[in-house]
Amino acid sequence: SRLSLILMLMLAGLVGYGGYLLFQDMQAPELEFSHTASSVSPTLPLTLKATDAKSGIKRISVVVRYEENEIPILREEFDQRQPSREVTFTLADAGLKNDDAFELEVTAVDDSLGRFGFGNKQSLVLSLKADTIAPRILMKSSPPNVRKGGTGCIVYAVDKDVEYTGILANDFYFPAFKQENGDYICFFAFPYFIELKDFKPSVTARAISGNSTSLALDLHRIDRKFKHDTITITQGFLDAKAAEFHHIVPGEMSELDRFLKVNGEVRKSNAATLLEIGRETGPTMLWQGAFSRLPRAASRAGFADHRTYMWEGQEIDQQTHLGFDLASVKQATVPAANNGRVVYAGYLGIYGNLIIIDHGLGLHSLYSHLSEIAVSRGQEVEKGFIIGKTGATGMAGGDHLHFGILVSGLEVTPLEWLDDHWLKDNIVDRINDAGGKAPPFSVSPAAPSGNKKPQQGGSRRRR
Questions:
Q1: pTM higher than 0.90, yes or no?
Q2: How far is residue 384 from each of residues 66, 289, 407, 412, measured CA to CA in Å?
Q3: d(CA 343, CA 234)
């Protein structure tokens, strides 16, 4: 009949239109799932991202299956056509117990046949195990003595594999490093700008499943007062530094304003760069014995000296000097303070020509204001190896070496690491007493002569 013919034509049209839409987009959505470990905490926020550039995402669903159970965790329908959708969920409502094995199926459907209620589908099925128990931390070293502005060391164990572990102290994170015997060693700083009562570090650990734990660190805090200095900025200093400071901070401004930008904004930016560099480190100790200082050098400014800057009798700025200034003859050769690997060799703002050496476990030594750099990034050096020459680059008014020690990129007092008795009592013996293995150490090691020539293959260039 005529009605049947019309119905058949309409049906054919719909099928044809559906086929057209289908062949327009035969690509299933792409899925990105945030969790890659084989175990997962039911309370861990999980993220699923679905992408389909052609048709957009229509629906996302998440299902948990274990034993005879099938538990819907999430099902979201989207009215607006968007090329990418992201959902976050937990498995808290799945009723999982510790060590339960289960399947997690995540599915996304695109909107290629949206008018018909279905489209291209992509599923991801993961075989996982529930982990409901937080990692346990076992301290193996006694409570450390830590002086304000100084370094502490702890040794501990964690009872399960971790994504990360270390010490969290007032928004600063100091990672711990796993050793051959399974224990973790962590060097951490007592930042010079934090008051005694406010320094409350904790040991934290996050298992690969997402469970985390935190333990308040028992330690002995030792206060320290730092020196205050007044520095008068002269026109002669500004004239001498004009070209270099203009290179650091270009633009039209007075030389005094340029100095203030270098001393403030650039100094702050440089500190952030040091924190980034501090992440580049090895998992084992590379150093041996106490660190050595610049030979035959007189001490000048000390660590955490607070400076008030004056111009024509008026206060114009306040900053804190970090590191240990040592003055010898002009362009004196600078030896590496200990064994390590060069992770920075170049120019950096207030530091001028700068070398940073990694000694492992987040520990670095810093050599700045150099007139010459004689090593390159990635080069391994031994204690006493000549790495450059002293100079007056950066925020330096005269030829000297600014020597620093960094713990995970944060500057600490270098004097501790130059003191063989402090190093033996607070680092080496603590590691050995906790069952670890510190590098061979002898009190009062011989100081390097300071006149060694660069080894063959070391690059030398003027900066």
A1: no
A2: 62, 12, 21, 22
A3: 35
CA 268 to chain centre: 17
CA proximity to 33, closest of 98, 124, 165: 124
**Residue of 114, 9, 16, 105 whose CA lies nearest to 57:** 114
Contacts 24+ apart (CB under 8 A), 248-253: 248/349
Q: Which residues partner with 368 through β-bridges? A: 402
What does 371-397 look like in DSSP terms, one character per residue?
A: SEE---TT-EE-TT-EEEE-B--SS-S
Give the model's pLDDT for residue 304.
87
Q: Do 350 and 260 form a contact (C-beta atoms < 8 A)?
A: no
Contact in structure between 113 and 119 (CB atoms under 8 Å): yes
Local structure of 350: helix, strand or coil: helix
- 158-to-129, 177, 214, 216, 335 alpha-carbon distances in Å: 20, 12, 12, 15, 39
d(CA 45, CA 250): 46
Summarised one tens digit per residue, pLDDT across range 235-246 is: 999 999 999 999
pLDDT digits (tens, 9 = 90+) for 158-203: 999 999 999 999 889 999 999 999 999 999 999 999 999 999 999 9
